């Protein structure tokens, strides 16, 4: 007979969301790095530089939002742990 699946619980849910935020942060940082490489590669082609600058700013905004989200999630998990 198959075993019933267990619920994640509070700590399992915290860990799952934390890992998802880490994955998003890693993707944003990698994207920002690739924008820098693309900007350097297309330095002679000025028509593409504006698009690359906009993409770079969006990626850096994503990295900054990730930091804010991760700090808030960290504070939430501390508060949640203390309340359990």
- What structural category do the secondary elements indicate? mainly alpha
Can you tell me the residue ranges where pLDDT is under 50 for at least 5 consecutive residues?
A: none
Based on CA atoms alone, the radius of gyration comes out at 19 Å
Strand content: under 5%
- Write down the domain tally: 1
Range of helix content: over 70%
Average pLDDT value? Answer: 76
What distance separates the N and C termini? 34 Å
Shape: elongated
- The total of beta strands comes to 0
**Number of alpha- plus pi-helical segments:** 2
Main beta sheet, described?
A: none
Question: Would you give an account of this structure?
Answer:
By secondary structure, the protein is mainly α. It has one domain (20-83). The protein is 85% helix and 0% strand. The chain contains 2 helices and no strands. The chain has helices spanning 9-41, 46-83. The longest helix is centred in the last third of the chain and has 38 residues, at 46-83.
């Amino acid at each position: 007979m198959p075993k019933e699946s267990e619920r994640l619980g509070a700590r399992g849910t915290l860990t799952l969301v934390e890992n998802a935020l880490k994955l998003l942060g890693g993707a944003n940082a990698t994207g920002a790095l690739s924008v820098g490489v693309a900007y350097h590669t297309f330095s002679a082609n000025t028509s593409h530089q504006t698009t690359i600058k906009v993409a770079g700013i969006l990626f850096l905004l994503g990295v900054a939002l990730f930091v804010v989200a991760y700090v808030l999630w960290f504070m939430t998990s501390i508060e949640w742990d203390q309340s359990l």
